[in-house]
Amino acid sequence: MPRPRIPERRAQLLAAARALALERGWPSTTVADITSRVDIGKGAFYLEFENKAAILDVLIADGMRALSRAVHRRVVATHAVIDLPTIYEFAIDALLDDPLMRAFFLGDASVLGDHVQSVHDGRYRQRFDWLTEYVTALQEAGVIAARTDGQVLSQMLSVFTLGLLNAPGTIQVDSDEQLRRTVAMFADLVGKGLDTGRPVDPEASRRAQLVMLDRLQNQLDELRTTSPRNQTVEH
């Protein structure tokens, strides 16, 4: 008969993995470290997660979910135009406010970059498509010049983001201030280069960002729900 998962066990393993990642770094953390921290057998671990990479996937998804909610709050609370420089500012603030995501980005050289390269379920392709639709919505709101090729711009923004994910291990982006300045300069240059010089519809730009955030949140929720280790086990 189907036996349900034990929510407390899964939560304990995630909490232990998070704590160990902050204490010693993710590359130095093993499955044995995680299970011994909460006195759970390795067999029970593998009922909840396929391997160490799987628990990292959940930790990153949970971090992304928290970042999305934080940006959502900033967007709703801001009455100014939500343009690309603004949204990049909100995103980097949210990332640096999360100890684990900050550690993954600035402390563990290849964690986020390697993770993105290891995921093959289509989630990042879907996000690229949403980004292209978001760019189109910003064009309609007057934030981005209509002459801009939305797909090319989306690709450029994605290349920058992927470059940032791999930067700590290659060019030593090793401080909050350096990361903030890098992102701010990129966003400012792009924003100025795409400025229409005409009136902007602030509500339309806000709606476009909220649609993007809602889509991301729904995708993350669906990934958590459909994870194979979230299903029941047959005996």
Automatic annotation (TrEMBL):
Keyword GTP-binding listed: no
DNA-binding region: 30-49
Swiss-Prot/TrEMBL keywords: DNA-binding
Coiled-coil annotated spans: none
Organism, as annotated: Candidatus Agrococcus pullicola
Name by which UniProt lists this protein: TetR/AcrR family transcriptional regulator
GO biological process: regulation of DNA-templated transcription
Molecular-function GO term, any one: DNA binding
Residue stretches making up the HTH tetR-type domain: 7-67
Cited Gene3D superfamilies: Tetracycline Repressor, domain 2 (1.10.357.10)
InterPro entries assigned to the protein according to its UniProt record, in alphabetical order: Homeodomain-like_sf (IPR009057), HTH-type_TetR-like_transc_reg (IPR050109), HTH_TetR (IPR001647), Tet_transcr_reg_TetR-rel_C_sf (IPR036271)
PROSITE patterns: HTH_TETR_2 (PS50977)
Pfam families per UniProt: TetR_N (PF00440)
